[in-house]
Amino acid sequence: MRRIAIALAVALAAPSLAQARVHKIAPPGNSGVGQYVETVPTADGGQPTNTVHPGGVGGSGGRGGTGRGPGATGGGAIAASTQRALAKQGPTGDATAALAAATAPSRTRPAARSGDARSTSSGLPSFAGQGSSPSTSVLKALAGSTSGGGLGPLLPIALIGSVLAAAVLTLVRRRRTS
Amino acid sequence: MRLRTLVLAAVLLAMGANVRDARAHGLTLGFSADPALTGNAPAAEATWIPRAAAEGAGIVRVNVAWAQVAPRVRPGSFDPADPSSPGYDWTAVDAAVRDLSGRGLRVLVNVWGAPTWAQGPGAPAGVTPGTWRPDAAQLAQFATAAALRYDGRHPDPLKPGAFLPRVRDWQPWNEPNLSYYLSPQWTRVGGRWAPASPGIYRGLLNAFYGAVKRVSSSNFVVTAGTAPYGDPPGGQRMPPVAFDRSLFCLRDNARLTPVSCPDPPHFDALSHHPYGIGGPLWHALNADDAAVPDVYKLARVLHAAVRDGHVRPAGAKRLWVTELSWDTSPPDPAGVPAAKQARWLEQALYVLWQQGVDTVLWLQIVDSPPIPSYGATYQSGLYYLGGAAKPAAQAFRFPFVTRRMSRGLIQAWGRAPRGGRIAIEQRRGGRWVVLRWLAVRSDQVFDVVLLVRGRATLRAQAEPETSLAWTQGR
Fold first, then answer.
1. DSSP labels for A88-134?
2. Cα–Cα distance for residue pair A7/A19, rounded to 1 Å
3. For B258, phi and psi rounded to 5 degrees?
4. E strand segments, B19-105
5. Which residues of A touch B129 (CB under 8 A)?
6. Which of A28, A38, A66 is the closest to B376 by Cβ?
7. Under 8 Å between Cβ of B262 and B211
């Protein structure tokens, strides 16, 4: 049963990997230098370079643009307490938080309330807010599409089949042992 | 376990493995084109160049912006291969080469950025100036002019009767896997993205190589350092491993199958810029990207190219790193603590050396002013802007790292700041006790295995220099 649980967990993670897109993380202290950010696969939303990173590629003096982009973390993908703990670890913690946030499935954000500064100051660029509810996102992720690199409707069928097969196998074994 | 340790130690002693020269390559250190060293400010000659030499640097990179030295509009009498041709302005380059060479530092001339008239046709709007399909033949003419000017026999315009210093080390272009320096990176072929920049760069590299070698066969050509991270096909950046595969006409990362390569790349050393998102042990997440511990990926591609005759001249090539750094906090709020920067610096030197790198240029000797922001500038100097030294200065001058190999053995690696005797010491009861004496040459890498059980704090000493200390657990 444990094997089945592991297999299920892997299978559930598969759509995220199959539909991976990109996010970018920067070397410590150089989030504004667009040349040296690393492209990281994420769970959704393809992001062109110039929108993922506010600094972009370019600028004067031969090194980078301006602004500070994806080196910061946020966006609610990980718990606030965890974020604080990671922040204490310095840049490595920041990078870990950025990676966790970047690779997490998107969350639909409530519409920005007037006067709510947090609604516009996320350290992570616009990953969230793709317009679908969490349940829809999960269903979409499960169903996937072959054109997007996923297994399409085959995946849920395979999952349901695996669960049924496991249940039947367990029942048969119990009857034999009794 | 104890017996095994003793046997191993006996074998090591029997082999006389005091200073391992098995890896024949040493480690040359230097600085990249830090304006504090190459910008001709009074502080460069008075303060920073002497400090760079005192820190053990052997080489400094000087940026030569082709578009700034060459005329914007070519005069009628312009001869691009003649360094004395009207239209050329070498003033800033002359000064940097003169000042650095005067302190015994080698100069690596890095040429990049084409004048408008040397770019290819059809540049789209918004492309970075000087990057669009630079003309290889024009670059060769400029390389000839530069190599002739710094061949050691060209009269110094500021010192009658004297000659400008000799420059042997040359690097055509910078980070050619970024559209910021070379474009286009990709072209659309048959509905799919195909690499464009490696082919363009191969043409530039070979034209440059031929030109500087014709002036002097002892000139040394280093490829442009590749940037560490790329984007998916069609993006603004090509992953460095993919770029090198294409540069060397190799296909398929698993097998590195050679494909037709009518004009293979010509060079003496391959360079990379392995800026890390994390520390020196942080691997890039994508297979074709390369941070500090991933340089072996590039070495693997290079070795395959050498094996298949896709590199000229034939034979082994050296590996250089011409940019590397981590910013510190303070002053950059997003940097790493100064003590950690120092550890990372010396650990990175070890990790790079292990992978075959024999020359590493740290980005800057002193922090940059944070204009327009900390995030867009570098605070990775060995010195703060005010002139105070960071711990990294000691790490750069006398890099030393240790690694526990087993319960009874510790590996100690470092680079000698000067020739003579080095003591590897252990802290015991508030005193430093010598564990091993080593006889070394200046700048020689030492790599020894020590019998040390339990928690231990070690350092190296070469009077009057002392390395930073490393503590190993049990």
1. TTTHHHHHHHHHHHHHSPP-PPPPPPTT-GGGG--SS-S-S--S--H
2. 19
3. -70, 140
4. 28-31, 59-65
5. none
6. A66
7. no
Does B313 sit behind a cis peptide bond, omega within 30 degrees of 0 on the bond before it?
A: yes
A131 CB-near residues (< 8 Å, 6+ apart): A108
Q: What whole-number distance in Å separates Cα of residue B451 and Cα of residue B409?
A: 5
Instruction: Evaluate whether ipTM surpasses 0.85.
Output: no
Contact B347, B403 (CB under 8 A): no
pLDDT tens, residue order, chain B (474 aa): 455 555 555 544 444 444 544 345 899 999 999 999 999 888 998 999 999 999 999 999 999 999 999 999 999 999 999 999 999 999 999 999 999 999 999 999 999 999 999 999 999 999 999 999 999 999 999 999 999 999 999 999 999 999 999 999 999 999 999 999 999 999 999 999 999 999 999 999 999 999 999 999 999 999 999 999 999 999 999 999 999 999 999 998 889 999 999 999 999 999 999 999 999 999 999 999 999 999 999 999 999 999 999 999 999 999 999 999 999 999 999 999 999 999 999 999 999 999 999 999 999 999 999 999 999 999 999 999 999 999 999 999 999 999 999 999 999 999 999 899 999 999 999 999 999 999 998 889 999 999 999 999 999 999 999 999 999 988
Q: For residue A81, count other CB atoms closer than 10 A to its CB.
A: 8
Could you say which residues from 105 to 164 on chain B have a Cβ atom under 8 Å away from some Cβ of chain A?
Answer: 128
The answer, for B183 touching chain A at a CB cutoff of 8 Å, is no
Best probe of the B interface among A30, A86, A99, by most B CBs < 10 A, is A30
Residue A148, min C-alpha distance to chain B (Å): 15
3-state secondary structure of B81: coil
